[in-house]
Amino acid sequence: MKYFKLLSIALPLLASCSKENEEAGINSKPKADFIFSDEIDHFTLSSTSTSPNSDILTYKWVSLCDTVKVATPHLNSTYFNLPNLSTSEQLKIKLVVSNGTSSDSIIKSITLPPKSSVRTYGLGCVLKKELSNNASYAWYYDQGNTGPYSDVNCGPSSVTMAIKWANASFSKTPEEARKTYRPTGGWWYTNDIVNYLNLHSIPNHTIDVSHIDLIQSELNLGNIAILCLDMYYIRSQSQDKWHVDKFYSTNNTGWGHFIVIKGYQNVDNKVYYEVYDPYSFGKKYSDGSIKGEDRYYRSEDLNNAVANWWKYAIIVSKNKSKSSSVGVDIRKIQHKPGR
């Protein structure tokens, strides 16, 4: 009789414990969730999953599209590269989280944009306006291949590029320009640039640049510009694969340098200038293209770099009709050097 009394007491207790264990299992189940972000040429994925008991979670990211691969599918934060699309497409990403005893999953749709050069180059997402006064033939020179004074041959290299752009048949090299002026070495000055342009009958004029965006009117006419600026004020690149910002070190102010401006792009309401920077010294992107060719520098950086060095621009034209007669008298301004 005593046995049955104990059994009648134990059964409700067991039922109660079983119910508590079941509820505990439900309450300890993780909740899967994540956020994603468009990072120009890739998307980041970050788990915001939760676990009531603060259990350590494992993660599994799955792309429900064969052409898109998640880089590190078992980390709480990861990414995937933007695929080569001509139109927008929907991608479904699945996240599965587990605490070892139970799991949860979620699927979200991500709208993938078309892949464009502004995204590939790292400029941004939405191109609003662009202009490029490029030539149909090669006219870039790497000053690293210009003879014994390569370290300071940005001037001879930039002016040779400009002349080659204006005259496709021009065959002289930056090393020959160096032999013409300051053949024993040293930085070239801005008046050396003008003199060499005049020597080869290339239409040019020099304008005052109170703000770098003033050169847009010259670019719109089909001209290009040679700047002498302090490269210290151009920020360093954040991504080695992108074409944006400076790709070499300038540790102090006073880093005078010549570059060629040949176009501009307005991306996400920011202006970037299309540049031929001769200071490549053989540095290349993973696709083999040279780093100083088709480089993009920000308007605000160029503005600071010009304001802190030489506040003028040498405008180069292909013919006299596009060369404005309005400009500064180069005999009355201070000239600056570049290396």
Structural description of this entry:
The chain is of the alpha+beta class and 339 residues long. It has helices at 2-27, 117-120, 154-166, 174-180, 190-199, 216-220, 299-307, and strands at residues 34-38, 42-47, 58-63, 77-81, 89-98, 103-112, 127-132, 188-189, 204-208, 224-230, 256-267, 270-276, 295-298, 312-316, 337-338. The strands form four sheets. Strands 7, 9, 10, 11, 12, 13 and 14 form a seven-stranded antiparallel beta sheet that branches. A three-stranded antiparallel beta sheet has the order 1-2-4, with no helix packed on it. A three-stranded antiparallel beta sheet has the order 3-5-6, with no helix packed on it. Strand 5 (89-98) and strand 6 (103-112) form a beta hairpin. Helix 3 crosses helix 4 (174-180) and helix 3 (154-166) runs parallel beside helix 5 (190-199). It is elongated, with a radius of gyration of 31 Å. Residues 1-7 have low confidence and may be disordered.
